[in-house]
Design goal:
The chain crosses the membrane at residues 12-31. The chain is an alpha+beta fold. The protein has one domain. It is built from 3 helices and 6 strands. The protein is elongated. The N and C termini lie far apart (94 Å).
């Protein structure tokens, strides 16, 4: 028997190398998808915070409506806000503010609610939710926050206002 030395690589070694390369590429693809999801969530958080800050600034600019409770409306939807064309007064300004901010939130697939803060009853909080999280319905704000802690898996934020 004549034993010859093998030179080069065999088919099995090439297949093992390709298999390892495929696993690596698949791992990087999964990491890329997670990065895109995290980026989208961060974008939604920034947008929700911008909406909440806009409403907080409008509330600060209209202190009489805030004192009279015209901003404390719970879940804000465009259909629940009455449109009044009478001269500007604190209530009409508050209704217009709520309508404008709710429209802005709706355009971005978000919903809005204004209610008492979860800890302490002296201030109001602005809640903004997106994706599957809803601030209306039977559970309402409990879809977002419960006992001052965000609910796991919810997509929302709250901003303490006035």
């Amino acid at each position: 028997m004549n034993i010859s030395n093998h030179r080069g690589t065999g088919l099995v070694e090439v297949l093992v190398g390709l298999f390892l390369l495929a696993i690596g590429v698949l791992g990087f693809s999964i990491l890329q998808l997670r990065a895109v999801d995290a980026s989208l969530e961060a974008n939604n958080q920034v947008l929700a915070l911008t909406i909440a800050q806009d409403l907080a600034e409008r509330m600060r600019a209209n202190p009489q409506a805030l004192i009279d409770g015209h901003y404390a409306v719970g879940s804000v939807t465009l259909s629940t806000i009455s449109k009044d064309n009478s001269p500007a007064n604190p209530k009409n300004t508050a209704n217009q503010d709520l309508q404008n901010v709710a429209l802005h939130a709706q355009r971005h697939g978000m919903n809005l609610s204004i209610d008492k803060c979860p800890v302490g009853n002296t201030r109001q909080c602005i809640y903004v939710a997106w994706e599957e999280t809803s601030l209306s319905g039977e559970r309402g704000l409990e879809n977002c926050i419960k006992d001052g802690v965000y609910v796991k898996g919810s997509h929302c934020l709250f901003l303490e206002a006035y």
